[in-house]
Amino acid sequence: MKKKNLIGIAFASPWMIGFLVFSAYPIVMSLYYSFTKFNILQSPQWIGLTNYQHMIHDPLFWRSLFNTFYITIFGVPLSIVLGIGAAVLLNQKVRGVGIFRTLMFLPTIVPPVAVAIVWMFILNPDYGLLNALLSFFHLPQPGWLADPGYSKASLLLMVLWQSGQIIVIMLAGLQDVPKSIYEAAEIDGASEWMKFRRITLPMLSPVIFFNVVIGAINFLQFFTQAFVVAPKALGSPAHSTLFYTTYIYQNAFQYMNMGYASAMAWGLLILTLVLTFVIFKIGKRSVFYGGD
After folding, report:
1. Residue ranges of the alpha helices (H) in 20-96?
2. What CA–CA distance (Å, rounded) separates 121 from 34?
3. Number of structural domains in the chain
4. Which domain holds residue 114?
5. Average per-residue pLDDT in the chain?
6. What is the pLDDT of residues 235-280, one digit of tens each?
């Protein structure tokens, strides 16, 4: 038995070593660095809670936190609504539905960097396709990424365009709802809206709950699109696209303030844990499980 255990450990050792070196060690060291003044080039100097105190008095920290909450509060519900709506349409028995499902999922496999670059051309205020379309219909043409009032909405468009994964999960949840429940409701004279409200949504609630949790965590770590659209001036225009993770990157690799960036990273971890805990508390009262 001891020999078998040693053989098992030997086979698992590459993963264990990789986890310790590339995950566990950086996590522990980032916690230590969060209590130090560290610019990578010099040895860290212990300063206690100074970095955490600086976060409270840093206006850009609060700005990045506001922008992150903004895109999370709007992004999560919109992605859920879009996912449910598209899944309901793709669940219909029509000819060629497989093609439509494929087309809806295709944007998901496109790298986010490529998506951001394409959307930068589409949303360009001077020669972009979207403003050209709005001009054709004599509608106002916003500055999109160049306008602080529309920049976050522009980034949200990029994210929602890649909602294929949510749509597929919602579609799987829809197909798991027993047909007999709908048949019983039809016999009782229920309308399509009543069936959707009283049957579809409650039966989908575990799937919706899963997507809310994952979506909230992902939006709190929103980075790629915001970085691509303004790589030389993160947060432009007027800090409207300065998100929590981009501000961490800015402090760590532009200002070389690794200690403050580490403190912000641990702040993000605490924020994510608190938000997830709140979502789980709410989910206990609103999620219906078939076995309940």
Report:
1. 25-33, 50-57, 59-90
2. 39
3. 1
4. 50-286
5. 91
6. 888 899 999 999 999 999 999 999 999 999 999 999 999 999 999 9
